[in-house]
Amino acid sequence: MAEDKPITVEEVRSAQDSLKNGINFHEKKNFKESIEEFKKAAAVHPFDSKHIDQLGTKLKAGSYKLQQESIAYMGCAAVHLNKLIHGLDESRKQEVPVDESLMNVFKDWQ
Questions:
Q1: Integer angstrom CA distances of residue 74 from 31, 54, 90
Q2: What is the distance of C-alpha 101 from the center of its chain?
Q3: Contact 84, 11 (CB under 8 A)
Q4: How far apart, in whole angstroms, are the C-alpha atoms of residue 86 and residue 29?
Q5: Cβ–Cβ under 8 Å, residues 74 and 38
Q6: Among residues 73, 1, 2, which one has the least CA distance to residue 34?
Q7: CB 93 within 8 A of CB 7
């Protein structure tokens, strides 16, 4: 698990890029691609290395549609990115230009 190492600006940028790519794929109804991008975002500096696999197992057991699976992984990736951003030192947060629309959503979570 990566929780022993400090979160880096590069990790936050990588997770944010994957989340945004996943959202773009999801909007184009490319759900398999969106799921892969969301998984990639959630795998950056993981707080629980088994979480993605556990979510996948639960989704498969529930026999959800691909679009619903994509939404579940999107939520997972968004929560993960929010946690990464809040894990940065205050001085380092300024180094990450977090997408404004994402920040607006995250403000509502606090």
A1: 11, 15, 26
A2: 15
A3: yes
A4: 30
A5: yes
A6: 73
A7: no
CA atoms within 13 A on the CB side of 4: 2
Strand ranges in 18-96 using DSSP code E only, listed in sequence order = none
pLDDT tens digits for 23-69?
A: 999 999 999 999 999 999 999 999 888 999 999 999 999 989 999 99
Q: Which residue has the tokens 């936050």?
A: 12
CA distances from 95 to 13, 58, 72, 85 (A): 10, 36, 29, 11
Decide: pTM greater than 0.90: no
Tokens matching residue 71: 């939404």
Phi, psi torsion values for 90, nearest 5 degrees: -55, -40
| Tokens matching residue 12 | 């936050």
Nearest partner of 9 among 102, 101, 77, 90, judged by Cα: 90
DSSP per-residue codes, 3-14: GGSPP-HHHHHH
Annotated domain spans of the chain: 2-98
Q: In the chain, what's the furthest Cα-to-Cα distance?
A: 44
